Amino acid sequence: MQCRLPEIAAATSVTVVMASPVVTVDEEAPVRDMIRLFIAGGIGAAPVVNPRGEPVGVVSKTDVLRAVYEDPSCAGGGAAAELEADIDQEGDLRARDLMTPGPLTVSESASVSEAASLMAREHVHRLFVIGQKGALTGVVSAMDLVAWLARDEPA
């Protein structure tokens, strides 16, 4: 039996595998809010949106950890206490300071195959799905693709 997976992936819309609605972060969101969001939401990253709701970047748990723990003042046994004190101060880091600008997106008309190819080519774990009017409609992660591959029945 010949494998039909490439044909099925090319014929399946990315909307079938994407998660929606998308949890977003405002450009001005402080580190404390992002940490709470990542933990409470069980997510690894969120798109950063401008006041018009347009995606302008993406911030991940790794971005937050890197920013906090690459600061030499956070090294050592008191790192957690220092982190809490730093987060409580006015003027702490914001999403706009930590985000990777220009998040990678695909249109709702893209196929699973196209999304997987872009993720592999760009070495990213997630893509944001954009609707016809430019609105953010979903997110597709590498795990979403793996779950789709592991399903019992064809889409």
Q: How does the SSE layout of this entry go?
A:
Blueprint: H1 5-11, E1 25-26, H2 31-41, E2 45-49, E3 55-60, H3 61-69, H4 79-88, H5 95-98, E4 100-101, E5 105-107, H6 112-122, E6 126-130, E7 136-141, H7 142-149
Parallel strand pairs: 1-2, 5-6
Antiparallel strand pairs: 2-3, 3-4, 6-7
What's the domain count?
A: 1
User: Structural class of the secondary structure composition?
Assistant: alpha/beta
Regions with little confidence, pLDDT below 50 for 5+ residues: 74-80
Give the CA-based shape. Answer: elongated
What is the CATH homologous superfamily assignment? CBS-domain
Query: What is the CATH domain class?
Result: Alpha Beta
User: What fold name stands as the CATH topology?
Assistant: CBS-domain
Question: What's the number of extended β-strand segments?
Answer: 7
What's the alpha carbon Rg, rounded to whole Å?
Answer: 18 Å
Mean pLDDT: 84
Q: Roughly what percent helix?
A: 25-40%
Main sheet: strand order: 1-2-3-4
State the separation between the terminal residues, measured CA to CA.
19 Å
Q: Biggest sheet: strands, sense, closure?
A: 4 strands, mixed
Q: What is the second-level CATH architecture?
A: Roll
Order of helices and strands: HEHEEHHHEEHEEH
State the helix count. 7
